[in-house]
Every structure is written in structure tokens, then in C-alpha cells.
Write a sequence for this structure.
């Protein structure tokens, strides 16, 4: 093995390890930065952070272990860690829950594009009990350097994979400051697409996913109280607050985070209150739709 190949192999191993650590040890938490940027509160590291900070954390782990630094490319509020050489592009995007780095080799291009698909969480089950992973597909356009990332989860209700997220990362959208300025972050926090605050975990031992969700505009115009809380399990089943399903899912999240459900619920409710207080009089948000997948 040449030194160049060995170096590339070592970098990929470090990227894989960092991705796994962030996906299974750093919850996605869309409430964290309301506390940090509106109330100047320190948030426990175990509570996790938003997609951008998950990518920053993955990139920081790789840099500490290899000395190789990522570029952070943004599509709106979404940020991924990207590594470019003339021969390949590698992407770490923990928010999309992929189980291996997205590595695209120029030599594999077909009609000017490189495509790769990897398995992602959640790992679900079909009606017959057979396992089926989620999928992340990356497409690298050699003409303009753009990267499209598509995340599809298996829907047990529909019996098929369904596109859940899609982002396009362009070379000119590189963040010049990491993290971005407080002004930019506060604008992200008030974005009208932010319809909920939530904890999402992939349990580090079982690798099963669970979420606690607080809609910022509950269906039917209900108030934003503890009763508005929902949960979603690994199969995508949504359960209302107080139900057996909610208690089961909440226990998974609480165990992964290391804090009781009551504390996590209070954290979400406080974040929602901080958001409202920071932008009084803004137009009402669209109602949060929550149906089982």
C-alpha cells in the first residue's frame, strides 16, 4: 500500500468513526440554540445540537485525529462537512443519519455525474419482519461541483421508501465563519420552516431511533403546552403525550440523553417560549403535521 493510499484509507477510517460517534452520541436537538442564543444559557453537551453543529462536531473530530479540515457547505440552514480532492469528494452529514461517509470518486462518473447510495438510520422492518434501512443518495455534478443529498426513509404504512429531506450543497456556499455569526444563527432560529423543536436520538446500544417533538403550532390551534408533546418511534409511529407509546419512546430518548423525560420536556417548552418572546407579532406558523409513517 503506497503512502498516499494509506493516508486516504486512514482519513476515511477517521471520517467513518467520527460520523458514527456523532450520529449515536450527539442527539439532534433543534431547541439547543434557542437557549444559547436567546437566553445565554449553557446547554449540557449530552443534550445535543442542531444539524450544523453536528457537522461541525464531526469535522472537529476528524481534524483532531488526522489534521485534515473540512469545508462546511450550507443549503439555507443546513450544513454538511465536505472534504474535496481532485479525485474524490467525501461528505459527513450526521443529520441525515448515514451509516458510512458518502465518498464519491471522480473515476466512477457517468455522464458527468457521480452517484453513491449508503444505508442510514432508522433501520426499520417490513410487514413480514425483514429489515430495511433508510437511504442517503449523493450526486456530485462534475460540471459545477454541486452535491445533491437525498434522504429517504422506509415508510411501513406505504410499503416503500419516501423522500424525507433533500439538500444541494454548492462550492460557493462555503461558510467563512464556524460557527456563523449570532445574527445569522438568530435568523435561522426564526425561519418559518421551523415548525417544531425536538430531541432525536439513535440509541448508542440498540441503534433504534426515537424522537420527542414539541410542535410550535399544534394542530387545531391547541396551546403550546406539555400536552402538545408527541413522540415518534423507530418505525415512524407517532404517539401523543401520556400514551403508552409516548412513555416507551420517551424512555429511549431519556436513556440516550441521560436525563428524565420531564427535564427534556421542560427544555423544549422553554425553547418554544424563547422563540415566541424573541419575535412577538410575527405571522402565525403553519400547523405541524404529525402522522405515522
Amino acid at each position: 500500500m503506497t503512502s498516499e493510499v494509506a493516508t486516504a484509507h486512514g482519513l476515511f477510517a477517521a471520517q467513518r468513526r467520527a460520523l458514527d460517534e456523532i450520529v449515536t452520541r450527539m442527539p439532534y436537538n433543534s431547541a439547543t440554540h434557542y437557549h444559547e442564543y436567546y437566553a445565554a444559557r449553557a446547554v449540557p453537551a449530552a443534550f445535543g445540537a442542531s444539524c450544523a453543529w453536528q457537522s461541525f462536531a464531526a469535522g472537529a473530530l476528524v481534524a483532531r485525529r488526522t489534521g485534515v479540515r473540512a469545508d462546511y457547505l450550507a443549503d439555507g440552514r443546513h450544513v454538511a462537512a465536505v472534504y474535496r480532492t481532485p479525485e474524490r469528494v467525501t461528505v459527513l452529514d450526521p443529520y441525515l443519519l448515514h451509516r458510512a461517509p458518502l465518498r464519491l470518486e471522480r473515476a466512477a462518473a457517468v455522464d458527468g455525474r457521480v452517484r453513491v447510495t449508503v444505508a442510514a438510520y432508522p433501520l426499520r422492518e417490513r410487514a413480514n419482519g425483514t429489515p430495511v434501512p433508510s437511504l442517503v443518495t449523493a450526486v456530485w455534478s462534475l460540471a459545477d461541483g454541486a452535491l445533491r443529498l437525498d434522504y429517504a426513509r422506509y415508510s411501513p404504512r406505504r410499503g416503500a421508501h419516501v423522500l424525507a429531506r433533500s439538500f444541494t450543497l454548492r462550492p460557493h456556499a462555503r461558510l467563512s465563519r464556524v460557527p456563523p455569526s449570532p445574527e445569522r444563527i438568530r435568523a435561522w432560529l426564526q425561519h418559518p420552516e421551523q415548525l417544531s423543536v425536538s430531541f432525536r436520538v439513535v440509541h448508542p446500544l440498540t441503534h433504534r431511533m426515537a424522537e420527542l417533538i414539541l410542535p410550535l403550532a399544534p394542530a387545531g390551534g391547541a396551546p403550546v403546552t406539555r400536552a402538545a408533546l408527541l413522540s415518534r418511534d423507530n418505525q415512524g409511529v407517532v404517539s401523543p403525550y401520556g400514551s403508552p407509546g409516548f412513555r416507551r419512546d420517551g424512555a429511549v430518548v431519556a436513556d440516550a440523553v441521560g436525563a428524565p423525560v420531564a427535564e427534556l420536556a421542560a427544555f423544549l417548552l422553554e425553547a418554544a417560549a424563547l422563540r415566541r418572546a424573541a419575535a412577538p407579532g410575527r405571522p402565525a406558523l403553519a400547523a405541524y403535521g404529525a402522522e405515522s409513517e
